[in-house]
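Hi again,

Forgot to attach this to my earlier email, sorry! This is the prediction with pyridoxal-5'-phosphate bound. I've pasted everything inline since the attachment limit keeps bouncing my files.
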Amino acid sequence: MKLPEKGQDWPAIKAMLEERGASDAKWRDGKTAVYVFNAGEEVERVQKEAYTAFMSENGLGPLAFPSLAQMEKDVISMALGLLHGPEGATGAMTSGGTDSITMAVKTARDYARSKGRAKQKANIVLPQSAHLAFDKACHLMDIEVRRIPLKQDGSFEADPVTMGEAIDSDTIMMVGSAPNFPHGIIDPIAALGGVAEDKDVWLHVDACVGGYFAPFARMNGESVPPFDFEVPGVMSMSADLHKYGYAAKGASTVLFRSEELYAFMPFDFAGWSGAPMKTPTLAGTRPGGAISAAWAVMNYLGVEGYRRLQGQVCETRKRAESGLREMGFEIVGNPMLGLMAFHHPDLNPFALYGEIYRRGWFTSVTKEPPSLHLMLSPKHADVIDAYLSDLKDACDAVRSGDAAKKPKVEARYS
Ligand SMILES: Cc1ncc(COP(=O)(O)O)c(C=O)c1O
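Structure tokens for the complex follow:
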């Protein structure tokens, strides 16, 4: 497309946008279980109105926009209240999980250097199931990534013993997920915390998915193990508001146990022609709308709203698990929140993925072990039975060999 010589009026452009969106996944109907967190129309309305209210404002300028600075402080304070942040704990909002993780890695690296560690090439030690955002961050910062196999006991949890063995004097961080993306499993954070304390290494908990889910699941009586700052070895956490916090996209939090650790995050620079500038995170310009929408949704839902929504998601996952087991599927490990992976002993998951996709479902897959994957939202309570019924048909199609005759559908999480 070339920039048009003459602009067009808004109704014409709006119509074009609608037309472009027409072939996208119809996530509002609940048939999408990846990319989008669907908490219903009311929450979407709050996101939109709160976002547009501060859409042009810039979080880069706290003096110009004290409203945004205060909303960010409020969000961080609400986050730390949920995640057992001790006195003095602090953090910042970022644009998403990858951003939060990148900033946590950078902060841990600079902290380690200040303590005389990582004199050679720095490394981080993480379970094989941890998100690839760590690899991206390490690629940017020329840090070695040591991915360690999971426990071999069918739990699909991180293995604290082998992770401990991989740590050396150049290790700047070890990682646990709460939960990981591929399986939805919460790693044994307390045991990882023990190793981190023994080895004097920074432990980061990637709670991008679970940070705003697990606390409420716990309040609802789910047996979620300790996973946050309650565990003494945890130095930092990433927790995404644009996932199960149901905020508009572009909102995550990166949290630190203390001001002392946080102090290694901001970039403070005066050596250029412009005014000296100190920025807390990777971004320069920080979209005000992402801050105001997150603040608004948190206040709109409150503990009561989140408990209700997360209860709905857990309930839906349990319904899915029992329906899947009836069809002969095996669930990977013991998922406790809204993500799950599952496979059938006799049926190729990627063939099933193709069949379920043809029936209008936008879902994901896991590679190790080869599995189907669901990331459930509150909306899925309405459609999980339809999914199970379509999956049953998909199983029949794959069994009968019909699936093999159709063009392949490539499953990618990107
Ligand atoms: C466990 C986990 N960590 C980090 C991320 C990265 O988050 P984002 O896509 O917001 O950068 C994801 C994304 O799905 C995730 O599931």
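The pocket of pyridoxal-5'-phosphate is lined by residues 96-98, 131, 133, 177, 180-181, 206, 208-209, 240, 252 (CB under 6 Å). The chain has a mean pLDDT of 96.

That should be everything now.

G.
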